[in-house]
Amino acid sequence: MAEHLLVDAQGPLLRVTIHRPEKRNALSRAVLNELADVFTEHAAEPKWKVVVLTGAGDKSFAAGGDLRDLAQVRSEEQATTMSHEARRALDAVSQFPVPVIAALNGDAIGGGAELAVACDFIIAPPTSRIGFIQGKLNITTAWGGGARLLSRLPAPLALRLLTRSELLDAHAAQRIGLIDQVAEEGQTLEQCVEQFTKPMLAQAPQVLRGFKALALSHADGLSKAELAEIETRHLVATWTHDDHWEAADKILNTRKSP
């Protein structure tokens, strides 16, 4: 059982909530280890279609690393170990076999921003902010977030955000492509998440896994030939699946109707 996470299965949707509202959901080493374990444990479950990662309360998605816990990390060896262990958590999120959505219930700051960009999509209300403000602590990104930001945005733009420790509101982040969707006026975050995930939940899980596998392989820099092989493999698996023929038969039968 995770001490700092709430894990809730809602049909084919898995919801993971960082539950440290009294600490603004700060990411201690214990929280990061739990994230790694939960996402690794659930990766093999074939029924999942979408994962929603969020935080408790309405102030912070994750207010960076837990400074009190991380203050114990002093030596080069300790810093290296901390970075590697935290990367295990964010890698487990980013490599999860179906889409993972960061639902920013509040600010995603520093390490919280790194966790957000480890997800495939980011959704937020207008009041949320996101920022890679590690430079204000005279450190660089710690857990792979800088590299992911450079993959998500044009390099000069990502470098600007990093070197200026810019804190963006949700609409500003959406305009540059950092946030995918902002809740509309009068719309709750939960309603926005439901609207965003509805088309995904209408897909078959094996189809979502195929698309996610292709995206991960592309991010890893595989060759065109390797990407073609992966795409073909998933096409064959989904083409010969009963779900495909059931959907195709429905269309064909509709066309035959007078």
UniProtKB/TrEMBL annotation:
The entry sums up its family as follows: Belongs to the enoyl-CoA hydratase/isomerase family.
**UniProt-listed Pfam families:** ECH_1 (PF00378)
**According to the entry, what is the taxonomic lineage of the organism?**
Bacteria, Pseudomonadati, Pseudomonadota, Gammaproteobacteria, Oceanospirillales
The name under which this protein is listed is Enoyl-CoA hydratase/isomerase family protein
Classify the source by domain of life: Bacteria
Which residues does UniProt assign to the signal peptide? none
